[in-house]
Write a sequence for this structure.
């Protein structure tokens, strides 16, 4: 059975009819790496936030279930939910530049969570932090732990955040576009690092991205999201050899090719967008009947 | 990896040194006023009225900054006036800061109905003209030190609340706050451990500004005779008295005014200087 399973999750802006998520269903098995792809505004980050309980105030969940290891997170009172999510899940955020508190040193930012929330002893937590920093190939962990975030490069900060995400041995990590804010040369290293850490720790990973190239390298399966609807749910080999949905096919065709760097960009054809929108509208109608 | 910024030991900026020096001297002088004041600030001597300061023809030894129309020593009165001014600045400034910053943090970080409630209160509050509001408050509460402090706090908390609310909203949208939440920290705990340290530089600047503003408000209130009892020397009261004799004895007006000006300026410069020292990136 899946470690994380989302059933018919719908969300909208408070007081407005606009749907952000439309009956999204999604499964992530224990130890699986699932890609969640879609264009900007498709709602992929919202799914991550809904799982972690960090949705913006203006967004409300209207229906559905988020089962984490069989427990429905949406049915739990806030304090219990925080405790459960805090012990089982972690986040690798998008922008390493804003994801570390600028006024605190690195060390406490990794260890405080272990000490305050998971009740580790300070010595154990610090030892663990040093091991993890070494594991993500940070030279001189002692010195880095005493540094402030602004003293480190973006790539280093992202490694620290990866180390921090794995610190409490979570069962599920949500990586929200973890390489988008980094430059291309660093991206590859960070992807390799995430993949290696995932393999070593056996953590399930929900990898949110708009980059199909990244998905093909890191993930085992993927879900394609458009306007808050899951259009396609398939394994990586199936998807790249024979995408089922027309939108998926168009998306795949629109991916810039490294082999042809001077080739013009192919947009997703208008006809495909129109057909997909019609499909979304039809799904909305049938849900309201 | 570690860059050069951390290695630079920058020397203290001049404005921080100058403003801190002035405020420390003034505070020491205020505390030691009974010991160092050359004359009794309340002693009148009509034969020694309107004596000029020491470098002007016709001065008397012992009256460094001259005397007012009633023959009271200007320097001694400024020193005693500093006690009230600084007491008001420190207490009113601090209380305003605590109340305003707490309101701002709660509104900006918790959002929702808490924000609606606090923000509407601020909007309504700020529609009152502040000087009239404070005069009205003193009229109701009666003159006295605690009334002045209450008036300043009641009027000025909105200044903090608005700015800190905006700052807390900006910080609250950062990923490190989301990470803290995912890690299982409660909202209130996140507010203190993650948000507060990052709005602290702003709070410090506002606090010192507020201390300067408190001194001005106290001067305004004593200028219109609504401060503490009329016997005790206040800078505002001295300015009001000096105004009537500006053509015969300019020093009665100019010295308290200059002291007031320097003190308020020092508070604002101290704040700006401290902000740079507090900022983790510039530190």
């Amino acid at each position: 059975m899946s470690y994380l399973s989302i059933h018919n999750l719908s969300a909208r802006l408070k007081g407005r009819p606009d749907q952000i998520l439309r009956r999204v269903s999604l499964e992530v098995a224990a130890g699986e790496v699932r890609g969640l792809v879609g264009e900007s505004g498709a709602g992929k980050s919202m799914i991550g936030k809904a799982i972690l309980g960090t949705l913006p105030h203006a967004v409300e969940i209207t229906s559905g279930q988020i089962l984490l290891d069989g427990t429905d997170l949406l049915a739990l009172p806030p304090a219990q939910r925080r405790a459960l999510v805090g012990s089982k899940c972690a986040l690798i955020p998008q922008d390493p530049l804003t994801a570390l508190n600028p006024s605190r040193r690195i060390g406490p930012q990794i260890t405080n969570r272990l000490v305050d929330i998971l009740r580790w002893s300070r010595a154990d937590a610090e030892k663990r932090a040093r091991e993890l920093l070494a594991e993500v190939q940070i030279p001189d962990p002692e010195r880095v732990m005493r540094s402030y975030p602004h003293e480190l490069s973006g790539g280093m900060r992202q490694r620290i955040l990866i180390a921090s995400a794995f610190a409490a041995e979570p069962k599920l990590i949500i990586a929200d576009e973890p390489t988008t804010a980094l430059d291309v040369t660093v991206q590859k290293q960070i992807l390799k690092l995430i993949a290696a850490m995932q393999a070593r720790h056996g953590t399930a990973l929900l990898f949110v991205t708009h980059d199909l190239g990244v998905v093909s390298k890191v993930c085992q399966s993927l879900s394609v999201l458009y306007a808050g609807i899951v259009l396609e749910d398939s394994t990586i080999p199936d998807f790249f050899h024979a995408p089922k949905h027309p939108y998926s096919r168009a998306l795949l065709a629109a991916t810039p090719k490294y082999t042809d760097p001077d080739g013009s960009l192919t947009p997703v054809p208008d006809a495909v967008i129109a057909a997909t929108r019609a499909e979304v509208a039809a799904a909305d109608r049938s849900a309201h009947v | 990896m570690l860059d050069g910024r951390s290695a630079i030991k920058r020397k203290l900026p001049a404005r921080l040194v100058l403003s801190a020096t002035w405020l420390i001297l003034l505070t020491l002088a205020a505390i030691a006023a009974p010991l160092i004041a050359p004359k009794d600030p309340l002693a009148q001597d009509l034969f020694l009225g309107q004596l000029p300061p020491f470098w002007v023809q016709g001065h008397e030894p012992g009256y460094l900054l001259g005397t007012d129309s009633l023959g009271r020593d200007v320097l001694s009165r400024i020193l005693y006036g500093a006690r009230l001014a600084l007491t008001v600045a420190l207490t009113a400034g601090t209380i305003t800061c605590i109340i305003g910053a707490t309101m701002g943090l709660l509104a900006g970080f918790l959002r929702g109905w808490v924000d609606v409630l606090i923000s509407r209160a601020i909007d309504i509050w700020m529609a009152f003209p502040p000087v009239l509001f404070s005069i009205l408050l003193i009229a109701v509460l009666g003159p006295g030190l605690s009334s002045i402090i209450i008036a300043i706090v009641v009027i000025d908390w909105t200044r903090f609340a608005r700015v800190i609310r905006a700052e807390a909203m900006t910080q609250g949208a950062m990923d490190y706050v989301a990470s803290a939440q995912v890690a299982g920290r409660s909202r209130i705990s996140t507010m203190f451990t993650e948000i507060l340290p990052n709005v602290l530089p702003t709070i410090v600047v506002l606090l010192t500004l507020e201390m300067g503003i408190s001194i001005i408000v106290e001067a305004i209130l004593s200028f219109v005779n609504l401060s503490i009892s009329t016997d005790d020397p206040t800078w505002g009261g001295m300015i009001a008295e000096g105004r009537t004799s500006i053509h015969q004895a300019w020093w009665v007006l100019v010295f308290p005014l200059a002291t007031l000006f320097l003190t308020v300026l020092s508070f604002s410069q101290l704040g700006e200087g401290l902000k740079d020292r507090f900022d983790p990136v510039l530190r």
Remarks:
- The CA atoms of residues 57 and 72 of chain B lie 19 Å apart.
- Chain B touches chain A through 26 residues (CB under 8 Å).
